[in-house]
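Need tokens for this chain, all 276 residues.
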Amino acid sequence: MKNERSVAPTEFSSPSGEDLEFVPVKSADRVLTLIQLLTEHGQGLTFTELQEVTGWPRSSLYGLVRTMAERNHLSFSSQTQKYRIGIRLWEAGQGFEQGVELVDLAMPHLEAAKEQLGETVQLAVLDGIENIYIAKSEASHTLRLDSFVGARLPAFATGIGKVLLAGLEEVELDHRLRDVILVAHTSTTITDIVALREVLRKIRTQGYALDNQEYTLGVCCYAVPIYGSTGTVVASVSVSIPSVRLSKGIGEEALRVLSETSRKLSSELGYSPKSK
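Here are the structure tokens for all 276 residues:
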């Protein structure tokens, strides 16, 4: 079979000191293989593609993906018919030291930005063509963005997501946007790939993105990139402002505060302008 790993039995000492023979558990090995496979294909794979890659019996594969999807370890899109890594695996991944370090470093900066702006400030990373919110500092206003840490939103329809897409290399961007349908969430959502690419080019030049009620009516968002030590975009930080409170002056202040937040956090992550 394709993608099956042959593991030679090995010996190890159990906590009790008893010598136990290691015999691989096929179902566990297949679950881990699926996780690795879908991690490497962030845009997702259809059931047919998964079957072609693994070579496993369709009935066995179907049982695995359905079980994992039921437990939210995989997600399934009825639109694209593709399976992807689910929120439970993302949550488990938050235990990884690097992810924890990013959130820990970011939170004081998010809190400071929220205090200066009086609006909700968020941090997100990119997964496929979705942005995942990994940290948030909530404003006290009654009217604010209804989101939460762990939420996924389509990157093309949010300011924070467009910054993350703009940070990709063109080849990678081509790969992720291939066969993607841009679904309208409001009347201002970008639904044309050519138009989206033009917006992303502009974001790279100006250094920030704006979401003008493109995902949620009545909510605008300014976002800027966060850079890692190699000069690549590793995250994005944004402020969400209800349109009724937005003015030119507030927008300019939002960009000033976000840019300062990006500069400080990127520096703590080891970035310097020479890294780019």
